[in-house]
């Protein structure tokens, strides 16, 4: 099938920060799948729009197993990336679709990029590659909206 | 027999009058220097444009006939070194260079273009990074922050 390109264009992606740490587990045998599943994942992001160029900037940070209340052995990772997007012929696109592309798709793409980066970093680690589990993007957007409301109020 | 038929018959003979086979053979055997000659001719034409000269001006500067200059720019022309040196002198250009085994020809123009491209790329990349950093520090640039609103449409995929 011939792929149709989306009006959403990824113009730039930069890795801005990384942190990698490996904590040796005390027990000898470990179920890696179970351990990786127990890792806490924190995601924060900021969306911005430049007024002159109509470009969308998205800054996203992912923290894996950095929750001090529930520390697990193995990997402790933080990655932060910034991306710039543009919607081609934005005026001719339906508002709902534009909203979907500018918020949902952008975040989805950046998280995917960061997932790959996390995998590449951990792939060289003692426990092998860690794949960030699929993330509920809608929930992330709702939570962000709520936190912005709280900050306003 | 029509003229076309005559021509076709002629071309089909072992020794056609047009001599196209010989011409093709000659071109194939002399490919290397003919290519160089073409490049020299094109460079001469470019230099004429750059200097605002016509072929008559060049003929005067070289002290040769207008017809000879015309032959030089039409090519192929087995240029003599003395002719090339004279052309380089009057047009202020470089037509030939002897290179060492590991030497490459890089013109000033190419270097300038490459440097400019690198500077532009660097500025573009840095501009993006600056935007990310200002987004990180929202307080310094509140106008830039886009509010995330809960979408009325909840039909988005739930995983990403």
Structure description:
The complex is a heterodimer of chains A (153) and B (160). Chain A contains 3 helices and 4 strands. Chain A has 153 residues and is α+β, with helices and mostly antiparallel strands. Chain A has a 4-stranded antiparallel sheet with strand order 1-4-3-2, covered by helices on one side. In chain A, a hairpin with a 6-residue loop joins strand 2 and strand 3 (56-64). The longest helix of chain A has 29 residues, at 95-123. The mean pLDDT of chain A is 91. Chain B is an all-alpha fold. Among the domains of chain B are: 18-91, 434 Repressor (Amino-terminal Domain) (Orthogonal Bundle); 108-142. Chain B is extended, with a radius of gyration of 31 Å. The N and C termini of chain B lie far apart (78 Å). Residues 140-144 of chain B have low confidence and may be disordered. At the A-B interface, strand 1, strand 2, strand 3, helix 2 and helix 3 of A face helix 7 of B.
**Rough outline of chain A:** elongated
Going by CATH, the architecture of the domain at 18-91 in chain B would be: Orthogonal Bundle
What would you call the structural class of chain A?
A: alpha+beta
Strand content of chain A: 25-35%
Calculate Rg of chain A over CA atoms: 18 Å
Low-confidence stretches of chain B: 140-144
Summarize the helix and strand pattern of chain B as letters: HHHHHHH
What structural class do you assign from the helix and strand content of chain B?
mainly alpha
Q: How much helix, percentage-wise, in residues of chain A?
A: 25-40%
Structural shape of chain B: extended
CATH homologous superfamily label of the domain at 18-91 in chain B: lambda repressor-like DNA-binding domains
- Tally of DSSP helical segments of chain A: 3
Total number of distinct structural domains of chain A: 1
Main sheet record of chain A: 4 strands, antiparallel
Order of strands across the biggest sheet of chain A?
1-4-3-2
Count every beta strand of chain A, where a strand is a DSSP E run of 2 or more residues: 4
Specify Rg of chain B, calculated over alpha carbons. 31 Å
Total count of strands of chain B: 0
The N- and C-terminal alpha carbons of chain B lie at a distance of 78 Å
Largest interface: A-B, 36 and 26 residues
């Amino acid at each position: 099938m011939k792929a149709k390109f989306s009006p959403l264009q990824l113009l730039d992606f930069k890795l801005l920060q990384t942190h990698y740490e490996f904590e040796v587990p005390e027990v000898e045998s470990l179920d890696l799948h179970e351990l990786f599943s127990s890792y806490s994942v924190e995601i924060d992001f900021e969306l911005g729009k430049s007024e002159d160029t109509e470009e969308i900037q998205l800054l996203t940070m992912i923290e894996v197993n950095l929750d001090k209340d529930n520390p697990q052995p193995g990997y402790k990772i933080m990655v932060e990336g910034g991306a710039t997007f543009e919607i081609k012929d934005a005026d001719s696109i339906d508002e709902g679709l534009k909203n979907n592309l500018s918020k949902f798709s952008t975040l989805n793409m950046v998280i995917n990029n960061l997932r790959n980066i996390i995998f590449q970093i951990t792939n060289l680690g003692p426990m092998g590659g860690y794949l960030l589990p699929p993330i509920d993007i809608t929930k992330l957007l709702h939570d962000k909206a709520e936190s912005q409301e709280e900050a306003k109020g | 027999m029509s003229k076309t038929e005559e021509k076709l018959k002629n071309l089909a003979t072992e020794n056609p009058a047009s001599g196209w086979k010989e011409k093709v053979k000659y071109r194939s055997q002399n490919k290397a220097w003919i290519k160089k000659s073409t490049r020299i001719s094109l460079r001469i034409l470019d230099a004429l444009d750059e200097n605002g000269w016509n072929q008559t001006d060049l003929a005067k500067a070289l002290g040769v006939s207008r017809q000879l200059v015309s032959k030089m720019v039409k090519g192929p022309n087995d240029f003599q070194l003395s002719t090339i040196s004279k052309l380089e002198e009057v047009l202020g250009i470089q037509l030939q260079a002897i290179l060492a085994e590991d030497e490459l020809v890089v013109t000033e123009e190419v270097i300038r273009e490459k440097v400019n491209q690198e500077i532009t790329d660097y500025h573009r990349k840095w501009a993006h990074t600056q935007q990310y950093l200002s987004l990180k520090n929202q307080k310094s640039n509140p106008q830039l922050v886009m509010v995330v609103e809960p979408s009325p449409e909840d039909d988005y995929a739930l995983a990403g």
